[in-house]
Design brief:
alpha/beta, globular, about 350 residues, two-stranded parallel sheet, Aspartate Aminotransferase, domain 2, binds 4'-deoxy-4'-aminopyridoxal-5'-phosphate, Aspartate Aminotransferase, domain 1
Length: about 350
């Protein structure tokens, strides 16, 4: 059976080469006579996989030595709480930028831990843009500034990094981490669930500057304290070993493909293919302001809703799945993470052209 083009927002398509390697190593990893899934996390085989995954991620993202890389569980959603719990550090509040569904969730979960100042919001235009920093009302005494680098549902992405001076910048990079090069030193903390651009669900990555660890007041319970995981190389308890192994294979592949600068170039080309078509179509439409359009998640609507079902059915017949938009916004959404080959985007555009010619 041919593999489908899977446009899911996450869990999402993974590189075929990684899946093939994992399949080849499934019963016997590297002559060890066991699957990675079966290995003790304290054994030398798994410890080597774990250390290599961290080293490769550090190399790919250029993570400075004064940052810890934590391999955690609980999803980006648990980070919505762990961040204020650990980073409020006795200060009265934190600044948040409201760009859509995911930012709203982060804001909601921070409220029990201090004053949450929404310093900018794009709600006035249905979350169709990233608010320019000139309009943000930042508090110089805030514990940190939080923003969502890519709104997975709305398809809005920051193509610039906010300047927050001495106030630590905290970023939800769940849906665009590893899609482009970033200057990690501009951030206090970066977090991302793995199931979009990294690997299987079950792993959450946190990259946090040393000085922000161990400052929580009051001290969180053990498992929710970054210090616990930083002090134990993410092995305080059993880590999500198989997810970390697959993530490690993805990191190695990205390195082979030329690193994040090369990946970014490919992602721009892929996104442009679809946006160029959308901009010239009389039938399909993307609602996001041009400069703030996501390269990862591209929502679009058809001329009217009555065409949606036929569009999805035809897509399925052409081996393209998961194009239905998020239930909160309707329409369609094509998620085209790193692992979506350009052929998948070409196939989608060809189908959209055909659909427009027939129904437009
Ligand atoms: N933030 C963003 C931007 C997301 O896209 C998601 C998941 N779609 C989350 C947070 C929540 O992540 P998780 O399901 O891993 O908790």
């Amino acid at each position: 059976m041919a593999r489908v083009f899977n446009f899911s927002a996450g869990p999402a398509t993974l590189p075929e080469a990684v899946l093939q390697q994992a399949a080849a190593e499934m019963l016997d990893w590297n002559g060890s006579g066991q699957s990675v899934m079966e290995m003790s996390h304290r054994g030398k085989e798994y410890m080597a996989i774990h250390a290599q995954a961290e080293a490769d991620l550090r190399e790919l993202m250029g993570i400075p030595a004064n940052y810890k890389v934590l391999f955690l569980q609980g999803g980006a959603t648990l980070q919505f709480s762990m961040i204020p719990m650990n980073l409020m550090r006795g200060k009265s509040g934190a600044d948040y930028v409201n760009t859509g569904e995911w930012a709203k969730k982060a804001i909601k979960e921070a409220k029990p831990f201090g004053q949450v100042n929404v310093v900018a919001s794009a709600e006035d235009a249905n979350f169709s843009y990233a608010p320019a920093q000139s309009g943000w009302k930042l508090d110089p005494n805030a514990a940190y500034v939080h923003y969502t680098a890519n709104e997975t549902i709305g398809g809005v992405e920051f193509h610039w990094v906010p300047e927050t001076g001495d106030v630590p910048l905290v970023c939800d990079m769940s849906s665009n981490i590893l899609s482009k090069s970033v200057d990690v030193s501009k951030y206090g903390l970066i977090y991302a669930g793995a199931q979009k651009n990294i690997g299987p669900a079950g792993l959450t990555i946190v990259i946090v500057r040393d000085d922000l660890i161990g400052q929580a007041q009051p001290k969180p319970i053990t498992m929710l304290d970054y210090k616990t995981h930083a002090d134990n190389d993410s092995m305080y308890n059993t880590p999500p070993t198989y997810s970390i192994y697959i993530a490690g294979l993805v990191f190695q592949l990205l390195k082979k493909q030329g690193g994040l600068v090369a990946i970014e170039k490919k992602n721009i080309e892929k996104a442009n293919l679809l946006y160029d078509f959308l901009d010239n179509s009389q039938f399909f439409k993307n609602p996001v302001k041009r400069e703030d359009r996501s390269r990862m998640n591209i929502p679009f609507t058809l001329k009217d809703e009555s065409f949606d079902e036929a569009f999805l059915k035809g897509a399925k017949e052409r081996n393209m799945i998961q194009l239905k938009g998020h239930r909160s916004v309707g329409g369609m959404r094509a998620s085209i993470y790193n692992a979506m080959p350009v052929e998948g985007v070409q196939a989608l555009v060809a189908y959209m052209k055909e659909f427009e010619a027939k129904n437009g």
